[in-house]
Amino acid sequence: MLELRPNCECCDKDLSPQSNEAFICTFECTFCSECTENVLNFVCPNCSGNLVQRPIRPNAVLINNPASTVRILKELGCVTNT
Q1: pTM of the model
Q2: pLDDT of amino acid 80
Q3: Which of 12, 44, 64, 73 has the most CB atoms around it within 10 Å of its CB?
């Protein structure tokens, strides 16, 4: 089951479990749409995998399967992939 991490690892923007702006890789590294598109070019800076839109977990399911509250943030933010 996906962790549904609560923030962008680059800019620390809040990303709710219902956010359409959350993108993840296969390791669930999590980024906002702005960082994904404009900084990372849809490539995870941690594993070099592709970043895709994270699915939304319905509210009724969140009751028994809550999203993670653990915030992960890259200490120096993200740099532009070239």
Answers
A1: 0.91
A2: 58
A3: 44
